[in-house]
């Protein structure tokens, strides 16, 4: 596990991170296949596989799911605690590094708004059980240091961001806006795909943006990071050619999702493209892949403080885009390194694609 800030760790600290990270990877590569095997052995007992509650009642009878669910939450807590213990002992060093932004000669920039309040819908939750949610002081470190073992190293090259960026129809894209950019992993691919474009990463969290700015500069990428709300960016009408979002919509309440779609429509020039990437809808998972996958996503959302995920996965995304004014809207399955879909393999509890929804502003 590496970080852009060279914090000296003791052997004990590094061993702890490696051990807890290994357990986190095993949670997916070990328990996942066991859950899948148990489900396939018992699925004939289901009256209605499309009923998530019925699938849940079945899975609760198996030890693999019961222990895996317990293990997931407690393992996340172990990982976050291990990272925080390091950062709290070296807090002054970490703060100084984060605050050393917009240095002379920097490729990109960082624009923060100290008056911007944390959205009400994020004030009382800790998404994915991340301590303090995404706006805590060390949120960027927590997210970036955790994500590699959580995704078993399969997004270390920002593969998920690349998948959506490549799916955006080509063109003379001069300005690109990535909503909910976090530390920039979904933003960076646009810098390489469209080297002449102005690439903007937007997020509400100052701590995530600071980390993303430092990460971009360390990689030699020109990104302009800005602290704003995705549903109310403050940018002029028709000022972007592409607006995108990876893993944002499942972390927003329904009314805010609709507001973000309307805002993307307002921001795009005629012919501009809006593209998002998430897990497939429940209906698609149940009919085309596995009802077990639908249940596990639903239960993970409820268990791991992702309260808006179940509602989003039940939503018709094409209709959501069309109601926001977009045309030529389509769903596009994309390769999924995490589950093995599109790579000839099957990891975890079953292979399914990532799911892009793409629309054009008329």
Can you describe what's shown?
- It is a single chain.
- The chain is α/β, with parallel strands linked by helices.
- The protein has a domain at about 145-360: Vaccinia Virus protein VP39 (Rossmann fold, 3-Layer(aba) Sandwich).
- The chain contains 13 helices and eight strands.
- Strand 3, helix 8 (about 205-220) and strand 4 (about 225) form a beta-alpha-beta unit.
- The longest helix has about 30 residues, at about 10-40.
- The chain is globular and about 60 Å long.
What labels would you give this structure?
eight-stranded mixed sheet, 362 residues, Rossmann fold, 13 helices, globular, alpha/beta, 14% strand
In the predicted model, the low-confidence regions spanning at least 5 consecutive residues are none
Strand portion: 5-15%
CATH topology of the domain at 147-360: Rossmann fold
Got a strand count?
8
What's a quick, concise take on this entry?
With 362 residues, the chain is an alpha/beta fold.
Please describe the topology of this protein.
Layout: H1 11-42, H2 52-59, H3 63-89, H4 91-99, E1 109-111, H5 139-150, H6 159-167, E2 175-179, H7 188-193, E3 198-203, H8 206-218, E4 224-227, E5 240-246, H9 254-267, E6 268-278, H10 282-289, H11 291-303, H12 309-313, H13 317-323, E7 327-334, E8 354-360
């Amino acid at each position: 596990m590496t970080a852009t800030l060279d914090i000296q760790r003791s052997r004990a600290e590094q061993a702890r991170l490696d051990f807890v990270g290994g357990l986190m990877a095993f949670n997916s590569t070990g328990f996942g296949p066991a859950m899948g095997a148990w489900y396939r052995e018992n699925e004939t007992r289901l009256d209605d596989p499309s009923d998530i509650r019925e699938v849940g009642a079945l899975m609760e009878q198996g030890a693999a799911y019961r222990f895996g669910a317990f293990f997931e939450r407690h393992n996340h807590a172990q990982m976050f605690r291990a990272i925080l213990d390091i950062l709290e002992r070296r807090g002054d060093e970490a703060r100084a590094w984060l605050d050393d932004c917009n240095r002379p000669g920097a490729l990109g920039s960082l624009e923060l708004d100290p008056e911007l309040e944390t959205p009400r819908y994020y004030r009382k939750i800790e998404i994915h059980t991340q301590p303090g949610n995404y706006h805590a002081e060390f949120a960027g470190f927590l997210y970036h240091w955790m994500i590699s073992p959580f995704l078993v190293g399969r997004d270390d090259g920002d593969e998920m961001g690349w998948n959506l960026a490549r799916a955006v129809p080509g063109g003379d894209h001069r300005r690109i806006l990535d909503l909910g950019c976090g530390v920039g992993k979904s933003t960076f691919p646009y810098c390489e795909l469209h080297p002449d474009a102005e690439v903007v990463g937007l997020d509400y969290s100052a701590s995530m943006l600071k980390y993303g700015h430092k990460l971009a500069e360390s990689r030699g990428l020109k990104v302009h990071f800005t602290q704003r709300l995705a549903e109310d960016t403050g940018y002029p009408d028709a000022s972007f050619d592409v607006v995108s979002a990876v893993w944002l919509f499942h972390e927003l309440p329904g009314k805010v999702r609709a507001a973000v779609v309307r805002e993307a429509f307002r921001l795009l020039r005629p012919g501009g493209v809006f593209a998002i990437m998430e897990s497939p809808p429940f209906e698609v998972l149940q009919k085309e892949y596995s009802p077990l996958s639908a249940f596990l996503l639903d239960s993970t959302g409820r268990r791991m403080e992702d309260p808006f995920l179940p509602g989003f996965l039940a939503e018709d995304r094409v209709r959501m885009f069309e109601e926001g004014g977009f045309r030529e809207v389509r769903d596009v399955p994309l390769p999924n390194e995490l589950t093995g879909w599109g790579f000839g393999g099957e990891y975890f509890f079953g292979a399914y694609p990532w799911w892009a929804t793409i629309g054009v502003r008329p």
